[in-house]
Amino acid sequence: MFRLARRKLATSADTIAKQQQFNVFDRSAKLLQRSRTPLLNPELSRKKEYLRDEVALKTIERLAFITRDFTNVLDFGSHSGNLLKNLCVETEIPPDADYAETEITKQLNNDKKIICSKIKELTMVDSSRELLYRDAEESFNSVFPGKVIRSVADEEIFSHESLSKPEHYDAVISNLSLHWINDLPSTLANINRILKPDGLFMGTLFGGDTLYELRTSLQLAEMERMGGMSPRVSPLVNLNDIGSLLNRAGFSMLTIDAEDIIVGGFPDIVSVMDDLQAMGEQNSVLSRSGYLPRDVLLAANEIYKTMHGEKDDNGVVTLPATFNIIFMIGWKKSENQPKPLARGSGQVNLKDVL
After folding, report:
1. How many domains does the structure of the chain reveal?
2. What contacts 264, CB < 8 A, 6 or more positions away?
3. Cα–Cα–Cα angle for 75, 207, 115, rounded to 5 degrees
4. Quick one: how many helices (H) and strands (E) in the chain?
């Protein structure tokens, strides 16, 4: 049996502050969860990264609208390097693609080349060494024209060399990693600190409606069988809270939107949980219950099928899983940024326009 050793962090002011803060998640357990599959079964780990790859592509599409160069970029909570991989691997045009889909794919591949040419140095930071270095020898790494740096560091502690230099990065990108941070306001403030003035922060995280099918099924099953509920699924940030979090961290000119990605075709609730486990996205709440009774699981599976199941033409019922993705963009404040005109300085009457 393989065992992952828990890594010791050096005692510092940052670690003391971390111990004193109110924690929701067990970060040591989360590190083990994220590292297990990449270590024991790398191919399965790659196979189950469809969600991170999809979000990385959507991030690339948004980056394509920003015309400035980003010489020094930080991929914060980079996982195995989904952003780097999707920048360097050409997206294939489906055989049955229509004209519009073909042109969109061609534009995406062109955007990838343009973005790659803008980035001279990409620093990838992740707490899991097994995940971070899983694909370090893959061929796509040699396609990237710039320099790639991989750094193993706890995303909650900004004492590592890659996270400690103020005003160091032109852009910080974070895809689907911030939802496991205990003190999200402090982490966002630290990201703002390491950005250069007028630097870009672009992030994604799971929103509050993620896996609502699984949540409701487990809650109803536990209420029925045990007369109460346990925290089986992680608490998540709501879309309405993102703006205040970014403003509090010092970002301006915010752009926030959300999109649901629905993954269908799961035969049962166990298959949904297996995928979450392979992704390293299973529950790590400190107050979690470590045991799910068999009768509760069976009841949850039937509730899932009854309330959310999708029946095909042959009458076979499969289960969907909805992932609510919040996309956010913020800019570090700078004297050079565009500012609104003073109140009352307008020269055109809106009545004339309308």
Report:
1. 1
2. 310, 318, 319, 320, 321
3. 30
4. 15, 8
- Taking the C-alpha atoms of residue 195 and residue 168, their distance in angstroms, rounded to an integer, is 6
> In the block, which residue shows the tokens 């956010």?
328
Domain of residue 95, CATH code: 3.40.50.150
167-195 pLDDT per residue, tens: 999 999 999 999 999 999 999 999 999 99
β-partners of residue 327 are 204, 257
When pLDDT is cut at 50, 70 and 90, the band that residue 224 belongs to is confident
Q: Is residue 343 part of a domain?
A: no
**For residue 53, is pLDDT > 50?**
yes
Q: 97: which DSSP letter?
A: -
Amino acid letter for position 196? K
Lookup result for tokens 């915010």: 254
Residue pair 201/195 in contact (Cβ under 8 Å)? The answer is yes
Q: How many other C-beta atoms lie within 10 A of the C-beta of residue 234?
A: 20
Domain of residue 177: give its range. Answer: 38-206
333 within domain boundaries: no
Do residues 73 and 170 touch, judged by C-beta distance below 8 A?
yes
